[in-house]
Amino acid sequence: MSKFEINRRGLIKSGAAIGAGLALPTIFTRNAYAYVNEPKGATVTLGFNVPQSGPYADEGADELRAFQLAVEHLNGEGDGGMIGTFSSKMLKGNGILGKKVAYVSGDTQTKSDAARASAKSMIEKDGAIMISGGSSSGVAVAVQGLCQEAGVIFMAGLTHSNDTTGKDKKANGFRHFFNAYMSAAALGPVLKSLYGTDRSAYHLTADYTWGWTQEASMIAATEALGWKTVNKVLTPLAATDFSSYIAPVLNSGADVLVLNHYGGNMVNSLTQAVQFGLRDKQVNGKNFEIVVPLYSELMAKGAGKNIAGIVGSQNWDWKLEDEGTKSFVKSFGEKYGFPPSQAAQTCYAQTLLYADAVERAGTFDPCGVVEALEGFEFDGLGNGKTLYRKEDHQCFKDVLVVRGAENPQDEFHLVDIVEVTPVAQVTYEPENEMFAGGNLGKCNSGA
Amino acid sequence: MDALILQFLNGLDKGSAYALIALGLTLIFGTLGVVNFAHGAMFMIGAFCAVAMQSMLNISKVTLDPTKLDFLGNPAQIRTPMVESLFGPELGGSIINWSVPLSILLAIPVMLALGFIMERGLIKHFYKRPHADQILVTFGLAIVLQEIIKYFYGANPIPTPAPDAFRGSIDFGVLIGYAQNTIIYPAWRLVYFTFSAVIIAAVFAFLQFTTFGMVVRAGMADRETVGLLGINIDKRFTIMFGIAAAVAGMAGAMYAPINSPNYHMGMDFLVLSFVVVVVGGMGSLPGAVLAGFLLGVVESFASMNEVKSLIPGIDQIIIYLIAIIILLTRPRGLMGRKGVMEE
């Protein structure tokens, strides 16, 4: 009877042989599992992570409508929308790389932890290869980080903080929406022509990442005009009654109130500022003015008549006259009965941009998609000529300066377009101090 | 000084809302012994009564105008409110303009009915259960109510303006001997404060000077003895639940022009109102009102830039800080009674 003996040398030899044996097949089949959630069947799954509950649920619903429309158009259903006007002609209405597009949706609840959990579930359980959507910068930064770790592409929805493509930028993340710096850069010259250079501004700012970057951007832009900053006051994100914060503005010597607020904050602070008679006030011999740097159609609707004459900025507006906008408004309007919001437009555009990048790259591999999107120049998606900058994955395009409509023609006509600010005026260097501290890092395909 | 007066007015105004909600909470707690976390939702539903009234008055006859085009290039829809068709553009327009005050007429029956249904249908089953169970079930109910409202009205705030006559601001400083334009205050906020004062006075008068109120007060003091006298105290307490809901509903309806109603507004007030009740003393109606105004005023002063520069962030914690101090020094609150929630 033989005796089985094992010694150290034998163990190492056997281990090496077994290891080599196990590794051998993968040398030849590496491409079979080259990246996470590689689509194997006839469909490819996209994950749309939007607020379906919570204060931004209506904005989320509009984003989801746009995503659904984009999926229909990618699959060759409907009138094709902006696929027909898109400068890149890779999309044929036969899905993406011949695979039918399917989607799953998740609820961000406008909470970073819930949004991450929802995105994680879509990636791990549903096999989503790209995540898009969202209506908050806090959520966008959190989900972008998750997608980077997981090795999928993140096409941000509505996120306006400088940090998303600044200190928190990631190689797998791309933002089509504009940012706080661009809002301020676009608003500066318009504010100068409307209100002059001798102004004193008082800032009320939502106390979180977006508010801080919006305030810093506005102060930099207005002080460059010669305006003074009288005071800057942080307001709690959960605040609903701003009277205590507005009352000190009355006798502060300021003649402009800048409301760095969004969503419900903006609706309430603007409504209450108007109720306090600020718009009827004369200070320093000038009419008191209110500025809301970031407009949202849905929020403007909430503020009602109080937005009349108030200046702000937008990423896009359904009343633009370019062919891309007309096609999108027609598709969206005929399907849903009302014009799309800017949140809807950015989500629709992001879906087409992702699909197009995959087609151009010839692969769903996130690193291939990143390469295809970096430095990509395009037109026909409603914002004029646009560049996806390689250095920070931020889209550079024209920015709209708008003003609350004084005499709305109908319930959808909330703002008038004051100026389409050319892209050159809102472009900044990648090293700009407001975007400093971040690093894209390397793309991650999850392999 | 003018800044202090302005903040004092703000404080009274905030305090009005706190006091009205806390008054209802205390009424329910004092009579039924239930900690009602759905009371904030009553405030929110009251605000949506204002929205509903505005919508009802704006029910329109739709005609197509081929001379105007909508956003898709189709003939535009022209909406003429039925009220204007019935009463003429001038009177009809005025009725629509006064939709918020008129919504009180809707809020009272709706809230009484809702309060009655809530109490008979759900809350009565939890009278003998621990307070933790009551809190859980009423909190769950609050979430259900707000989700129902969100289903019908969406998540966005809905503008519900005050009548034109009260839409602007008034020069309050001139009224008290200050120079022009030093103390400007929104007219509707003064209306709201006056309205709150009237409602609070009416509730106290009702409890103090009516036989019904006397029985309720007796029941609050000693439910068992009142029952032994052959009085159906449960029925009266159910009515008080409805009245408390109606008070919160009216407070919400009149608050709609100050904060555009959204489904979550009840929750925003709920926690603060509970702090108000605890500071005032569980079960004490005068305590709830006093603490409401006190905390409203203190919160306003804490929001002043001068105060915030000394203690950053004080505006966000001041109410809770006061609650801690009061509970440490007067565990039963400012006007709390012995034995309430102490068994």
From TrEMBL, chain A:
Pfam families: Peripla_BP_6
SUPFAM superfamilies on file: Periplasmic binding protein-like I
Gene Ontology biological process: amino acid transport
Family designation: Belongs to the leucine-binding protein family.
Record protein name field: Amino acid/amide ABC transporter substrate-binding protein (HAAT family)
Annotated ranges, domain Leucine-binding protein: 43-403
Lineage: Bacteria, Pseudomonadati, Pseudomonadota, Alphaproteobacteria, Hyphomicrobiales
InterPro entries registered for this protein in UniProt: BCAA_transport, Leu-bd, Peripla_BP_I, TAT_signal
Keywords noted in UniProt: Amino-acid transport, Signal, Transport
Organism: Hoeflea marina
Top-level taxon: Bacteria
Automatic annotation (TrEMBL), chain B:
Membership in a protein family: Belongs to the binding-protein-dependent transport system permease family. LivHM subfamily.
Name this protein carries in UniProt: Amino acid/amide ABC transporter membrane protein 1 (HAAT family)
Keyword hit for Flavoprotein: no
Taxonomic lineage from the root: Bacteria, Pseudomonadati, Pseudomonadota, Alphaproteobacteria, Hyphomicrobiales
Species of origin: Hoeflea marina
Subcellular location: Cell membrane
Any GO BP: amino acid transport
GO molecular function: transmembrane transporter activity
Assigned keywords, A-Z: Amino-acid transport, Cell membrane, Membrane, Transmembrane, Transmembrane helix, Transport
Entry membrane topology: Multi-pass membrane protein
GO cellular component, as recorded: plasma membrane
Pfam families to which the protein is assigned, alphabetical: BPD_transp_2 (PF02653)
Keyword Transmembrane: yes
Regions crossing the membrane: 16-35, 42-60, 95-114, 190-216, 237-258, 270-298, 310-328
